[in-house]
Design brief:
21% of the residues lie in helices and 46% in strands. The protein has a six-stranded mixed β-sheet. This is Hydroxylase.
C-alpha cells in the first residue's frame, strides 16, 4: 500500500477539524472526514462493575442513522464545544497512524452559562493511504460517567 507523505500537521488538522464539525453540528461534514469502514465507540470504565462499559458502538451507516434521528430526540438546550489536544501520533507500517488526544466537552446553556460537561480521550486510527487523512476508527474513552438525559450527539 503506497502512503502519501503526510505531516503530523495534516493528521492534527483532521482531528481538530472533526471536533469543529461536531461543534457546528455539521454531521455530514464530519462524515466526509471518515473512511468507508469508519467505526465510532464511546466507552468508560466502571469501578463499580470492575470493567469497561461500551455506551455506543456504530459503523459509518449507524452513525448516519444516528445523525438522521437527532432532530426527533429530546436534547439538551444550548451548544457544545470540544477542546482537543493531540498528545501523540504514531505512524504504523500498514499506512495508518494512531493518534491519542485529550478532549473536554463544554456545554453552554441558552443563558450563556458554560460548564465542563465531560472529560475523556480520543483514540483515533487514521488512514494515510489516500489524498487526505481519513478517520477509520474513533474510540472515545470518557472519565465522566454521569452525562444526564438529552445527550445524543457524539463526543
Amino acid at each position: 500500500m503506497e502512503t502519501i507523505n503526510m505531516s503530523n500537521e495534516n493528521i492534527n488538522r483532521l482531528i481538530y477539524t472533526s471536533a469543529l464539525k461536531l461543534d457546528a453540528e455539521d454531521f455530514k461534514g464530519f462524515l466526509r472526514h471518515c473512511g468507508e469502514s469508519f467505526r465510532y465507540a464511546i466507552k468508560a470504565y466502571s469501578p463499580e462493575l470492575g470493567k469497561e462499559m461500551t455506551w455506543l458502538d456504530h459503523g459509518r451507516n449507524g452513525m448516519q442513522d444516528l445523525f438522521a434521528m437527532l432532530p426527533q430526540h429530546v436534547r439538551m438546550k444550548g451548544r457544545f464545544k470540544r477542546h482537543v489536544s493531540v498528545y501523540s501520533v504514531d505512524r504504523q507500517e500498514d499506512g495508518q497512524a494512531r493518534a491519542h488526544s485529550s478532549v473536554l466537552l463544554i456545554h453552554t446553556d441558552p443563558e450563556g452559562n458554560s460548564k465542563l460537561f465531560a472529560a475523556g480521550q480520543y483514540f483515533d486510527v487514521i488512514d494515510l493511504s489516500g489524498d487526505a487523512p481519513r478517520l477509520v476508527e474513533r474510540v472515545v474513552h470518557l472519565e465522566t460517567r454521569e452525562l444526564g438525559p438529552g445527550m445524543h450527539i457524539p463526543v
